[in-house]
Design goal:
By secondary structure, the protein is mostly helical. Among the domains are: 147 residues; 109 residues, de novo design (two linked rop proteins), CATH 1.20.1440; 94 residues, de novo design (two linked rop proteins), CATH 1.20.1440.250; 110 residues, no CATH class; 127 residues; 127 residues, no CATH class. The chain is built from 53 helices and two strands. A hairpin with a 5-residue loop joins strand 1 and strand 2. Helix 7 crosses helix 9. The N and C termini lie far apart (80 Å).
Length: 1066
């Protein structure tokens, strides 16, 4: 090859300065690797050589001649030995060796055990040659273990993974003996550390006898646990050991004694390092990183051990080990480090859940002997349980400390919009942190269980802390917030009587605090906390009308408060209460002259006068829930008319003025008002639902005229200024009006119940106003909302829209296609809505699709296939799903002649495109639907169950195969050739086996998908992350877990938030 190593050095230098990858792409570059490693002087050149070599091993190993494979293997081994001959060499070549070791592991995954059965013997023998070789070999064994047992699932085929695991286990005794020898006699710290790190990777898969029937645990504890340099990795090994499932058939808890001995002795050693009374919260920030890591490892050790083997320690005669272990965890939980806290929190949740479940297992007969209401609907009085031999009694003091920790570590719930920022200011929070939301859910759950375990202690701690807020001894924004968030989080955990007493105290104290505190920030903090708490206790509000009315009036007061975020939160809390207590607002309450809704609507202008438009929309949506709850239709229509009176007055005035002087529609302020009126209607409609019909009927004709008028103004602006006009503020305002009109129609149609009325009274005028306008507009002035509204109508009205599909397609199909088929990026919203519309037509009005002319029908198929290759995930999903649904409809719902004609024309095109996306790294996310699509194609051509194929005619064109060739034969040959041409590294036997599987498994989706996945992984073996190929399993697991989780939470009062319950469950 005409390039010298000196030249390559210069090239690599250029490459790392950002100029080209030509060498890396040369298919013969790997032949120079031995020269590169021996002669190159620039370190990055050697790395490049190893990258090239690694790539060859991963992708071309199977097609290399055997002697070349052997040559690579020998070369890598020799070069590793050369770089690790001495401690100095080891240090000098450490970075290069790390890469070399990984290259060797890549070779092992291809060669071991079938072509290299003596590898383990060789590596162990080499360890005796020098300490430095031994240290590096330990690292190789660790990397191999990680590769086989930790990372294999998504990078190797299931068969290969199984073979490697089996080989590793069968030869482990020699490896273990080597580790033991080193740990017993070595003195060199780096070798000991490498061995401990390797042992750490072994612990989770080696046979238990190696751990519990040898002196390993004692060696770890006595030689290394208290040595600062080794204690972190040693504690990690012990953590791995204490998390092992030691029970099982024939050996049930056979290692209990060793586990107890390990725990008690380790805890004693820990007390020498960290005294039990040490203030870890204060000490942690001042510690070095190694000590901080040790505290995190201690948390993992304790949580792991207690999580797996808690009964062993609970049953010890000496209870100190149980309490001391948990006190360490309480101390660690107090540290201001979120990751450490999350480790502890997972264990605390498990513990309190178990203690609660044991408490629930008290026989029913004993329960009925308790006073009425003691258990029903909330936590029992703990005094009633003192005579039962419950595990929770052993933890009383620990749990009391834990309640304080959980309250003080509570994080902001989603509903709270006002927070203290990093600069110590009280501000409106705009971004929800998913990590915080999840953490809140877990702490909340823990507190609910803690309340059930001792409601008296929980109430006492919270009221004491609140008293210290009121007297100022613990007052701070943070302390007030976390306490109130904690109080809000235990809604429904107490029984009604306790909850009433507790809440009356809490809200009175907080209302007093708002009066007492001076300064806008202080008042805003307390106000946000009052709003959060009342929003969490709808059961209490429903049962105490006066309190509900007082709270709502307080919210109306807060709606005039100018501090950032207070009005938002007042509106959010109001809508939450309106949803949960809606019937109470429309019913006549005792000692009231009228239902509260009447007063609210009468004063609506005053209440909302200081709110921003978006907040007013939320207010209308909240009132809409109340209007929908009025069962008397006449009363309901009156309330609806009165609720919408203000926007209707403004609308009537604008319509009147526009009839006299159309130019007012060009006034920016008028445009803004019209947009707001429409948004108000959309908000009210979303909560009133089908009962909104009188209001939409009142506006409908004027609304469509307004649509036409604004369209005219937009067209005139475009004619004057060109397409750039569509980006100007005034035109954008006009487009907002059009979009909101469409959104209102879409919202109503989605909620409608009388579909015949919608079809007869709304659809014709809407299509007349919207479709031609969309078609004749310039692309930049076409609104994606038109496509969305059509999709909503077709989805809701289904067959009733069949006769309208041709006119819809005629006006929107080709002109939209023109907008989006030039590239993958312009008009992103139109792309998604276009394919959603096609999919809706196929699903709900399929016969109409068959009536399209040939040219349009081909456009539809081409569009689907094009969408399946799109880089926008939503477009890709819509395209794939439509393609799948379309071929199913053609095969199942059409006559043989239509079906044969379709598959003759499109089968091969669809098949080729499916293989294209299947084998493209960028489209792994679509694997679930791609695999189903491929399976259906093979099933329609040649079903594995022996039934008659859905496709009766040929799937090939004349000239593609001999007349009379069966579809089975043609398809097998076609796919084999397709794969052979695309992937030259595949052997004929691999392809034949795979293609055969496509035929034999096409009635068993799970097996078909698994065969396809294994094939794809072998295509690009080890190339990148294949997690998305496991999406189906992941989705199913998530669904099952979600259902089980909901079932579990529904059994514990307080675990489901009030907002997750139906009204009658509160």
């Amino acid at each position: 090859m005409p390039v010298s190593i000196e030249e390559l050095d210069a090239t690599v230098r250029a490459f790392y300065e950002g100029r080209g990858e030509q060498f890396k792409e040369d298919p013969d570059a790997w032949l120079m690797v031995d020269d590169i490693l021996s002669k190159a002087t620039y370190e990055q050149t050697k790395f490049l050589g190893l990258q090239v070599l690694d790539n060859v091993i991963m992708t071309r190993w199977k097609v290399l001649p055997r002697e070349q494979c052997q040559g690579i293997r020998d070369f890598v081994v020799q070069y590793i030995l050369q770089c690790s001959t001495s401690e100095e060499a080891l240090k000098a070549h450490r970075t290069l060796l790390n890469k070399l070791n990984l290259v060797l592991v890549s070779v092992l995954k291809q060669e071991w055990p079938h072509n290299w059965p003596t590898f383990i013997n060789e590596i162990i023998s080499a360890c005796h040659s020098s300490l430095s070789v031994c240290e590096n070999n330990m690292i190789i064994l660790r990397l191999l273990s990680e590769e086989v047992f930790d990372y294999s699932a998504e990078q190797m085929t299931s068969t290969k993974t199984r073979n490697l695991k089996s080989s590793m286990c069968s030869e482990f005794s020699q490896i273990f003996q080597l580790c033991q020898d080193i740990l017993n006699s070595a003195t060199q710290p780096s070798l000991i550390k490498a061995t401990l790190e390797t042992l750490l990777r072994f612990c989770n898969w080696i046979p238990l006898g190696y751990i519990f029937e040898t002196p390993l645990i004692d060696t770890l504890r006595t030689r290394f646990l208290e040595v600062p340099e080794f204690r972190n990795v040693t504690l990690q090994c012990l953590t791995e050991i204490d998390g092992l499932p030691t029970g099982g058939p024939g050996q049930l808890h056979s290692y209990d004694e060793q586990l107890v001995k390990m725990f008690t002795e380790v805890l004693t050693a820990i007390s020498n390092i960290i005294p039990l009374d040490m203030d870890l919260k204060a000490m942690y920030p001042q510690s070095n990183s190694r000590d901080q890591e040790f505290i995190q490892n201690l948390a993992l050790f304790l949580c792991n051990f207690f999580g797996m083997h808690l009964p062993l320690i609970e049953n010890l005669p000496n209870r100190d080990f149980l309490t001391h272990g948990h006190y360490y965890l309480v101390r660690i939980s107090q540290i201001d480090d979120r990751e450490i806290f999350k480790i502890c929190l997972d264990y605390w949740l498990k513990l309190v859940q178990e203690l609660y479940e044991e408490m629930q297992s008290i026989p029913i007969s004993d329960m009925t002997a308790m006073p009425l209401g003691a258990m029903g609907g909330g936590a029992p009085n703990p005094a009633l349980l003192t005579n039962y031999p419950l595990r929770k009694h052993k933890y009383n003091e620990v749990l009391s400390n834990l309640r304080v920790v959980m309250i003080e570590k509570m994080v902001r719930p989603e509903e709270v919009l006002i927070v203290e920022n990093d600069e110590g200011e009280i501000v409106r929070e705009f971004v929800k942190e998913t990590d915080t939301v999840q953490l809140y859910k877990t702490i909340r759950e823990c507190l609910v269980y803690l309340t059930h375990l001792d409601v008296v202690d929980t109430e006492q701690i919270m009221t004491d802390k609140l008293a210290r807020q009121v007297d100022g001894s613990e007052w701070s924004w943070h302390n007030c917030n976390v306490l109130c968030w904690a109080i809000g989080s235990i809604s429904l955990a107490m029984n009604e009587e306790t909850e009433k007493r507790f809440l009356v105290t809490v809200i009175k104290d907080l209302l007093g605090l708002t009066e007492m505190k001076r300064g806008k920030d202080n008042k805003a903090v307390v106000a946000s906390n009052i709003m959060y708490i009342v929003g969490q206790y709808p059961r209490f509000l429903k049962a105490h009308w006066k309190f509900l009315k007082t709270v709502v009036n307080k919210l109306f007061e807060f709606m005039h408060e100018s501090h950032e975020g207070v009005q938002d939160m007042a509106c959010d809390t109001f809508i939450k209460i309106a949803k949960q207590c809606r019937r109470h607002f429309v019913a006549l309450q005792p000692s009231e002259n009228e239902p509260f809704i009447e007063e609210i609507i009468r004063n609506l202008g005053k209440i909302t006068c200081d709110l921003a438009p978006q907040q007013v929309h939320t207010f209308y949506e909240a009132c809409g829930y109340m209007v929908a709850a009025q069962g008397n239709r006449n009363q309901q229509e009156r309330l609806l008319a009165e609720l919408m009176a203000i926007p209707n007055m403004a609308w009537d005035e604008i319509i009147r003025s526009a009839n006299v002087n159309p130019s007012i529609l060009q006034d920016a302020e008028t445009i803004k008002i019209i947009g707001n009126i429409m948004k108000t209607n959309v908000s009210a409609c979303s909560s009133i639902g089908p009962y909104f019909f009188p209001q939409i009927g009142r506006l409908y004709n004027d609304m469509l005229q307004m649509y036409a008028a604004t369209s005219q103004l937009i067209s005139e602006a475009v004619a004057r200024e060109g397409e750039v006009a569509t980006k100007m503020p005034k035109v954008r305002g006009l487009r907002t009006i059009k979009k909101e009109i469409l959104k209102l129609v879409e919202t109503f149609v989605d909620k409608a119940e009388d579909l015949q009325a919608v079809r007869a009274q709304m659809v014709p005028q809407l299509l007349d106003s919207v479709l031609v306008d969309y078609n004749r507009n310039v692309p930049g002035a076409r609104d994606a909302e038109v496509l969305k509204a059509m999709t909503a109508m077709i989805t809701k009205l289904s067959g009733l829209m069949e006769d309208q599909v041709p006119v819809i397609m005629e006006n929107v199909f080709e002109c939209t296609l023109e907008m989006i088929n030039k590239d993958f990026s312009e008009f992103p919203e139109h792309r998604v809505e276009f394919f959603n519309l096609l999919r809706a037509i196929n699903l709900h009005c399929f016969p109409a699709l068959l009536k399209l002319d040939n040219r349009q029908f081909k456009f539809v198929i081409d569009s689907c296939l094009w969408a399946s290759k799109h880089d926008n995930r939503d477009v890709e999903t819509a395209g794939l799903n439509m393609c799948l649904e379309l071929i199913n409809n053609i095969a199942e719902k059409t006559d043989v002649q239509t079906s044969n004609a379709f598959f003759n024309q499109f089968f091969i095109t669809i098949l080729q495109d499916v293989f294209f996306v299947l084998t493209d790294q960028d489209h792994k996310a679509g694997f679930k639907t791609q695999s189903m699509l491929l399976m259906r194609l093979f099933y329609f051509a040649h079903p594995a169950d022996g039934t008659q194929p859905k496709i009766q005619g040929p799937i090939y064109q004349p000239g593609q195969a001999q007349p009379g060739t069966s579809n089975r034969e043609f398809l097998g040959v076609f796919v084999s050739n397709l794969l052979q041409n695309a992937f030259s590294n595949l052997t004929p036997i691999q392809i034949t086996t795979f293609v055969e599987g496509l035929f034999t498994l096409n009635t068993q989706y799970d097996k078909f998908r698994l065969a396809l996945r294994d094939f794809l992984i072998s295509l690009r073996e080890f190339a990148g992350d294949n997690a998305e190929l496991y999406q189906v399993e992941k989705e199913q697991q998530e669904r099952d877990a979600k259902a089980a989780e909901h079932e579990r939470r529904s059994k514990v009062s307080g675990l489901l938030k009030p907002s997750e319950l139906e009204d009658d469950e509160l």
